[in-house]
Amino acid sequence: MAFELPKLPYAYDALEPYIDARTMEIHHTKHHNGYTTKLNAAIEGTPLASKGIVEILKGLDMKNNAVRNNGGGYFNHSLFWEIMGPNAGGSPSGDLAAAINSAFGSFDGFKEKFSNAAGTLFGSGWAWLCVHKGGTLEICATHNQDNSLMPGIGCGGAPIMGLDVWEHAYYLNYQNRRPDYITAFFNVVNWAKVAENYNKHK
Q1: Burial 71-88 (b: 16+ CB within 10 A, else e)
Q2: Rounded to 5 degrees, what are φ and ψ at 130?
């Protein structure tokens, strides 16, 4: 069954002023849609066509660039839209907050380390908050459309929150000011969804 472009759970302008409507529309209808279309083309007629995206990524042949790039792009953006939302921001609570405090000392410590991972990644890629079995958290960054589900990436666990730092994610509004975009991102994080992801995968 072919993968479909997921609908956004909010309007394109719902994240303003932090992420502008035009960027959201282009990002969703052009970039994410492109990854979805190219992923379907790459797996058509192969054994991968009957598998889910997580299974595809975990068993990925890393030399298969068409599936690696477009499968990663499909999964990464699907997660990205879900962990943002209007009337969001603030800080996590419950088990996720406790895990963050345990791993990074405090929520501010987490924000500093996550922002550093996103801000110092050279070129295009993603910053991730991942959870290992048992509930331990890890922050890492990956290039291009790679993520921690893929073999041999250098960080592990299930990604429960990701930040897209490709220029197409922020350039219309922030130009080359990636740090400003990273700061703005924390105003739209849907911590309830991140916590749901944490509880599902810990």
Answers
A1: bbbbbbbbbbbbbbbeeb
A2: -120, 155
Would you call 153 helix, strand, or coil by DSSP? coil
- CA distance linking residue 71 with residue 54, whole number of Å: 9
Helix (H, G, I), strand (E, B) or coil at 147: coil
Q: What are phi and psi of 110, to 5 degrees?
A: -60, -50
Q: Are 96 and 191 in contact (CB under 8 A)?
A: yes
Residues 6+ apart with CB under 8 A from 173: 19, 20, 23, 181
For residue 72, which amino acid is it? G
Q: Hey, which bits of the chain come out as E strands?
A: 125-131, 137-143, 158-164
pLDDT digits (tens, 9 = 90+) for 167-192: 999 999 999 999 999 999 999 999 99
* Whether pTM exceeds 0.90: yes
pLDDT tens digit string along 116-142? 999 999 999 999 999 999 999 999 999
Say if residues 130 and 152 touch (Cβ distance below 8 Å).
Answer: no
